[in-house]
Amino acid sequence: MGPENLILIALKFNSVYFADKFFNFFGFIPIRDWKTLAVCVVVNLGLFAVSESIRRMFGLSGLFNKKFIHTAVALWGVSVFFIFQTKEAAIILPVLFILSNTGFMREFIFKLAHIEGSNHHGTIYYPVAMVMLIWFCWEQNERWAGIVGMLNLGLGDSFAGIIGFHYGKIKYKIGECSKTYLGSIIMFSISFAASLIVIFIKNNGLGWYDIGASAAIAFGAAVFEGLCANGLDNLSVPLGSAFIYSLFYL
């Protein structure tokens, strides 16, 4: 038997070995989830394209792109609890996004989302938070904590950033973090409304306990957002909101 035959046998063996490992890890993911994942990839790429088109059409700032994507991805994150059958499939896209945050891909993402500054790690913290919320809040009862966390990040932080940037005149600074009082008020208000709506849907009604819980979640989200710099709020707001929710309902 020649050396070329030995090489072919070795390649065949390795191919079978890695294929076996691949299907052991991903084989239990149903075909429907793979199809859903493919659609999600197209949708998310489309969101980037739509955001940039709107920005150019109306001459908007890069902040619009950043917050539009911020909000859209969070809403997509909420949907994964309902459109995927397995959490393993649901985390594939955010995991790929984490892995893409290196080298030239990181520079491309920064340019696409109009993010300035090499110390901004929000594009990594955001998908990390999504993976954690999906993985640990996947079950029927726990998923509402994950939904609250994603909405407070996607809606509260986005509106707080836009309104605070354009209309917030009075600022406060804690360490490296500089925020506006108006932005923090908006963060609390939007997070309160989002938490209240989620709890209403889950419980099919509201009581004073639920209103108090929503206020506590929103207050925590506003504090987490106000204290964190360099994109760290993309991690602290969703995880902190989900944690506070769990104290009241889990």
- SSE topology string: HHHHHHHHEEHHH
Sequence stretches where pLDDT stays below 50 over 5 or more residues: 3-17
- What is the domain tally? 1
Strand content: under 5%
Derived from helix and strand composition plus strand pairing, the structural class reads mainly alpha
* Neighbour order of strands in the largest sheet: 1-2
Tell me the total number of β-strands. 2
What's the average pLDDT? 83
Radius of gyration computed on alpha carbons? 21 Å
Kindly, what is the distance between the CA atoms of the first and last residues, rounded to a whole number of angstroms?
Answer: 65 Å
Question: Could you explain how this protein is built, in words?
Answer:
The protein is mostly helical and 250 residues long. The chain has one domain (31-249). 79% of the residues lie in helices and 3% in strands. It has a two-stranded antiparallel sheet with strand order 1-2. A hairpin with a 2-residue loop joins β1 and β2. The longest helix is centred in the first third of the chain and has 28 residues, at 31-58. It is globular, with a radius of gyration of 21 Å.
Describe what is shown at a glance.
With about 250 residues, the chain is mainly α. The protein has helices spanning about 5-25, 30-60, 60-85, 85-90, 90-100, 105-115, 120-135, 145-165, 180-205, 210-225, 235-250; strands at about 170-175, 175-180. It has one domain (about 30-250).
Q: What topology does this entry show?
A:
Layout (H helix, E strand, L loop, with lengths): L2 H24 L4 H28 L3 H22 L3 H4 L1 H9 L2 H11 L8 H15 L6 H25 L3 E4 L2 E4 H23 L4 H20 L5 H17 L1
Helix pairs in contact: 2-3, 3-8, 5-7, 7-8, 7-11, 8-9, 8-11, 9-10, 10-11
